[in-house]
Amino acid sequence: MNEPLKHLLEVARKAPQTKSDLEVQRRSFAYGNTHFENSKITREMVNKIADEMPLSDASSKALTGR
């Protein structure tokens, strides 16, 4: 791996993620894993279900870092 790429990866590791960033990542992960198993799953379905679900204590702690 070249030095400029190593530097960019190090900067990215230290960049803080917002609650919104983490939620987008969570939904993308859910979609990717469910769509892989069932091609009828859509992003809209994942978003609808995620919008209906309350955050668990664990999710809330992960999002806030507390």
Secondary structure layout plus pairing:
Blueprint: H1 3-14, H2 19-37, H3 43-52, H4 57-64
Structural commentary:
With 66 residues, the protein is mainly alpha-helical. The chain has one domain. The chain is built from four helices and no strands. Helix 2 packs across helix 3 (43-52). It is elongated and about 40 Å long.
Low-confidence stretches: none
Major sheet size, sense and barrel closure:
none
Secondary-structure class: mainly alpha
Name the overall outline.
Answer: elongated
Share in β-strands = under 5%
Share of helix, binned: over 70%
- C-alpha Rg (nearest Å): 16 Å
Question: If you average the pLDDT, what whole number results?
Answer: 87
Q: What is the number of helices?
A: 4
- The arrangement of helices and strands along the chain is HHHH
Q: How many structural units, i.e. domains?
A: 1
Count of strand segments = 0
| First-to-last CA distance | 35 Å
